[in-house]
Amino acid sequence: MTAPTPEATMPTDTRFFGQPRALATIFGVEMWERFSFYGMQGILLIYLYYSAAQGGLGIDEGIATGIVGAYGGAVYLSTILGAWIADRILGSERVLFYSAVVIMLGHIALALLPGLLGVGVGLVLVAVGSGGLKANATSVVGTLYTEDDPRRDAGFSLFYLGINLGAFLGPLLTGLLQSTAGFHWGFGLAAVGMAIGLVQYTLGRKRIPAEASVVHNPLPRNRYALMIGVAVGAVIVVAILMFARVIRADNLADIVILVSLAATIAYFVVILSSRKVTALERSRVVAFIPLFIVSVGFWSLYQQQFTVMTVYSDKRLNRDLFGWEMPVPWVQSINPIFIIILSGVFAALWTKLGTRQPSTPVKFGLAAIIMGAAFLLFLPWAGGGENTTPLLAIVGILFVFTVAELLLSPIGLSITTKLAPSAFRTQMVALFFLSVALGTAIAGWLAQFYDPRNEVPYFSSLGIAAIVLGVALLLAVKPVLKLMKGVR
What we know:
Layout: H1 22-49, H2 61-77, H3 79-90, H4 92-112, H5 115-142, H6 152-181, H7 183-204, H8 224-243, H9 252-273, H10 279-302, H11 308-315, E1 320-321, E2 324-325, H12 334-353, H13 360-376, H14 391-419, H15 425-446, H16 456-475, H17 477-483
Helix pairs in contact: 1-2, 1-4, 1-5, 1-6, 1-7, 2-5, 2-9, 2-15, 3-4, 3-5, 3-15, 4-5, 4-7, 5-15, 6-7, 6-12, 6-14, 9-15, 10-13, 10-14, 10-15, 10-16, 10-17, 12-14, 13-14, 13-16, 14-15
């Protein structure tokens, strides 16, 4: 294959809204991947707990929310595998491409295979593929900029806009198709979306800088057989645990939480103890730890959009629009609308402020505080009957969700690439996604404690906990910045 041209790495390349032209290619594949991902996830929970008469599988609601939380956590947990393969074997660009193929196959399985078989095969493929694509798409975006390029945060915010264009359209179209033609038609549309993304990316691969294909820490050839044996052994162990009912549908979220915790500790130990990491890089990795903890707390609340918020939208929200009932998945398109509107505003703000903008720890602390406040905003409508919460209230709450998200998520992607040691560039991005994995699995686990008949303890305790976490980080800004060694 001909090596990609290096033009996208030139600071003078401003052909995509002031950003490198190659950003458009990554923007496109991520947009369509998010279309398929959120389109499928928008109908997944109700598919699991709706009755057979409604076209669903009739699974217990608590177990269903746990499955969705565990699946969401597994997506981000899979970034470890995708990042490792990129850093040790194939490079980020190739892993991104192959991951997109696996995602498409997963959506096809959900669309064509019946019942729990389709759910099992489809979710495993989508989780593995999405994990590989997410970590590596972010890493490839990072190769478009030098460390001191002032466009960097703005570029990541624009990249985040692509994510949310897909996240907006996915639930709208799959939700409409599900409500009119059935769940499997909705899953099929998700597969079509990923196929479009693959075609677009294939046509634009030549613009990706050569650095994106570099294998930064090559695995010695004599260790390939060992790694294959470990992979096969892991699959066998999981199969045995499932057969012995140690791994069950009702404890999937617990298992993903434990695996995510173990992976997090192992990753930090490996990176911090590596001889390939310099003293300066090691200090920056230590600085990432408090950011990681706050990120876990943030995602534990934010990702309840796909667990508690879905149940809330189905049972507590008044979805009547002039005599027509809005599909449940459409609520998940509200947040992306605000992201689309505000991403440009935030990108322009960071660009205008330049070096005067708040540091990353300040942005993270504010994100946690605002996210906690969003949960407290549920309280005025607590204790109401079925379908009594006005749609406008949810719109306002999700606006606050969005402000918090824009202070943490694109900034988290950007700071991770800045703090990453050169030998663990993509795997450091996987560490950030591990915080999302842990938070998402916790969101699924927390959903079992949500009771529509007694909502005050749930929303108030979680909201206050997030605010306390954010304040703690704000108080620790100076020592964290000292450890970041010049990175802000």
